[in-house]
Write a structure and sequence with these properties.
- This protein is mainly β.
- It contains 2 helices and 20 strands.
- The longest helix is centred in the first third of the chain and has 29 residues, at 2-30.
């Protein structure tokens, strides 16, 4: 009886090993062990800031040993902040039918990118009796992100409350690519009569290329009383503007009404290379 049991056990063991071997060979034969490959033409792709995924995928192909050409499955997984000026790193990914995922990278350069620019909806000229709120006057736009006014911060100021004088404010704005721009502006605190006119400018900040000479005289949009009534006025302009030297300049507008009460406001001009 014991001998028969040993024989049966041995047979069962042999059958088990045999079945395991069959299933192992079948699984090995049917399992996809090939890994996809993403190929990229060129080390750098030049694109516009409004480039689509189709544009970013130019020169990118993918192949898998089992599935064949899987270029249509390649996706743009991510685009990094700037790694160099105007240059980002794009990560591509592809997945084959057996869920094998591979990635590859290349750099792209935005050929029409321009850094963020500040905007202003009023001059930084306040009455000593006013509540000073610089940030509410400032904004910024970006060629990639559009309006980034919520990314504008006041980094420093030497302003002293209830004090007449000229102070400095330091502004900063950052876009989604990590590009940071700075602007240092004068802050004027003055004693202003309630009888002085109100002056509205067409622009309060202007970016111009080196060598450009804008028409500052034409920048006054309206002059009115505090009740909003348009009035006759006299004006003159004072500035140290130099179109040939990049930098930040102030164009001062002095406007008088018929009663000789004067208002002062400023246009900021940024001269770029």
């Amino acid at each position: 009886m014991l001998k028969v049991l040993r024989v049966v056990t041995l047979i069962a063991f042999v059958v088990t090993v045999g079945l395991f071997g069959i299933f192992y060979l079948h699984d090995k034969k049917t399992t996809d062990t090939t890994i996809p490959e993403i190929k990229i033409e060129g080390e750098m792709l030049e694109v516009n800031i409004n480039a689509t995924n189709e544009d970013l995928l130019k020169g990118v192909t993918a192949y898998d040993g089992k599935d064949g050409d899987i270029t249509s499955k390649v996706v743009v997984e991510s685009i990094s902040p700037f790694v160099e000026e105007c240059i980002c790193e794009v990560t591509y990914a592809v997945c084959d039918s057996n869920k094998h995922v591979v990635k590859n990278k290349r750099n792209i350069k935005y050929v029409d990118y321009t850094p963020p620019k500040f905007t202003m909806d009023r001059a930084l000229v306040f009455s000593v009796d006013d509540e000073i709120d610089v940030l509410s006057s400032m904004g910024a736009t970006d060629s990639i992100d559009g309006d980034i006014s919520d990314k504008v911060v006041l980094t420093a100021t030497d302003y002293t409350a209830d004090t007449i004088g000229v102070f400095t404010v330091n502004m900063q704005a950052t876009n989604s690519k990590g590009d940071i721009v700075y602007l240092n502006l004068p802050l004027h605190i003055e004693k202003v009569s309630v009888a002085a006119p109100l002056v509205e400018l067409k622009e309060y900040i202007m970016y111009v290329k080196k060598g450009t000479k804008p028409n500052f005289t034409d920048n006054i949009a309206a002059v009115s009383t505090r009740s909003g009534q348009a009035i006759e006025y006299e004006s003159h302009i004072s500035t140290d503007f130099d179109s040939n030297t990049p930098g930040v300049y102030s164009v001062h507008y002095y406007v008088k009404n018929e009663l000789e009460y004067e208002t002062h406001t400023i246009l900021t001009v940024v001269v770029e290379e």
